[in-house]
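INTERNAL AUDIT FORM
Audit reference: QA-55
Scope: verify that the stored structure record matches its stored sequence.
Auditor: D.O.
Record contents follow.
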Amino acid sequence: MTRANPLDPVSLLGADQQHIATRAQLRRLGMPSGTIAHRLRPGGPWQQVLPRVICLQSGRLTVHQKLRAALAYASPKGREPQPGEVLLTGLAVLADAGLPSAGHPADLAEVDVLIPSQRRVADREFVRVHRATGVMPGGFERDDGLWSATVARALADLAPRETGPRRFRALCAEAVQRRHCELGELLDQLLARTGALALPQVARVVEDLTAGVRSVVEGEARDVLSGAGLPEPLWNPVLFLDGRFLAVPDAYWPHACVALEIDSRAYHLRPADHERGLARANRLTASGLPVVRTTPTQLRRDPAPVLHELTALLTTGPHGRHHRITWRRAQ
């Protein structure tokens, strides 16, 4: 990879901006237009990556350079943006937060940016532009110096363009489960958009999260149970035995004192979480509550045995020491 001459004034941009600059910045440094054009010639040391945005290197952009180039493209022409005036949003934010369903930042084909509503900037190359309605939301400066929207805002911006409802459902559940945003904050952001509930993926996520669902497999289980005509359980309630904490099952029917546990290593945060899930089910069983165990694969391919077992238990309850069990809804 060809690097800028360390004696060149523009090398200053290499240290601060990862060799991403705008034409306006270069001109302010005193570089003539002819010199810029010469360095951008075919086979030259620089490359034009977006309108007005130049990489002072040849070769493939790094992840950071791609994000910085997107922000530079969406910034006001002819001047430096104010802090937080242009924000990263969408999958770039979610991938940086480590949400599994967002993928790795290096694999992002597109970069979403959020700008004020009055600005006129179009989607271009790998940049997708979102416009804030009203006042720009508050963002924050990341450790790498780039400005980003919050995870909740990133999810709300992603929603209208997300064509995979299952992935959007998973992203929202992961964000809440991993505490990257509060449930109320996410619901506020999703519902702030006019007509948001008309989008099937948003309506389903809002319904799931409000019901207490905290993972995509729980959402799919909720679909299966509803389709079979079973009563709606509490999702992720906190159970107490004689006033002392007992467990947080995936689903619980208080009228029958029956719990459902969905065993899946893939959707637990760490192996230790899977082990805690097994211990939780054992505590529930030891307290006299029947626990129906299943897996996501079983619910997708052959849910009949699980539904039959649940139906039998729900119609014959309450079970165990039901008079000693209390509960609190998921937060």
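Auditor finding: record pair retrieved intact. The mean pLDDT is 88.
Action required: none
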